[in-house]
Here is the input.
Amino acid sequence: MSQLLKGKTALVTGASRGIGRSIAERLAKEGATVALTYNASKSGAEEAVAAIEQAGGNAFALQADLVDAGSIPALFERLDAELAQRNGNKSFDILVNNAGNSGWGGLSDATPDRWNTMFAVHARAPFFVVQSALGRLSDGGRIINVSSGAGTRPMHVVPIYSMAKASINNLTHSLAMELGPRRITVNAVAPGWIRTDMNAAVRENADMVKAIEADTALGRFGETSDIAAVVAFLASAEGRWVTGQVIEASGGYKL
Here is the structure.
C-alpha cells in the first residue's frame, strides 16, 4: 500500500482518544512518525501508541496540560529531545491542533472560569502551539486545526464552544496568509456530529439521534475515521494546493 506520509513526522495534540487518536493512527498508517499529546489519560495515550506500533507504525506520547499556556514551551523541549534521538534533528512536518474539552453549557449556567478554560484549550493553546512550532516546522509543512461546524453555524446550547471554534477558523485564515511564503499550508477541518464520548449522552436520546440523522444529508453520525481521512489528505502532498480553508466534514448536516 502506498504511504502518503512516509518519512514525515507529525505532532497531534489531544490524541489519547476520540478524533485525535483516530487522526494519529491514520497518519501513522500513512507512514508518519507521530508524537501525540495527552493531558490526564496516560493510559489512553499508551494504548494509542501501542495500537499504532502493533499496526507497524511509529509513535510516542508526551504529557501536556494545554489549559496552561506556560506549559507549551516545555512540551516542545521534550518533543525536541525525542525527535533528536529518533531523527537526529528537531524538525517536523505536520502539526494537528486537535486538543479540546467538553463544550456543553449555555448562557444561563456559564461562569468566567468555564469560559476561560474553554478558550484556553480551543483558541489560546493552538495559537501558542503554532508559535512554538514555527521554528521547528519544515518549509512546505502542514498545519491542520480541528474546528467544528459550530464555528460557522453556532449552537445556542454551546455558545462558548461555538465562539472558541469561530476563533480557530479566523486563526486558520490568518496563518495561511502569513505562512504561505514558506509553502506551509494551513487549514481547518470542521466535524459535524461524530461518534465520540463527548456526545455519548446525546446519542442515548433516540429522538435526538433521529433528528440529527434526519438533518444530515448522508443520514448517519460520522465516525472518527471520517475526519482522520480528511486530515490525512490535507497532510499529504495531495493537499498541497489547499490552504486557508475551513472544510466542513459533517456528512451534509443542516444543508
User: Anything to note?
Assistant: The chain has a mean pLDDT of 95. The longest strand covers residues 137-146. The two ends are 35 Å apart (CA to CA). DSSP finds eight helices and seven strands in the chain.
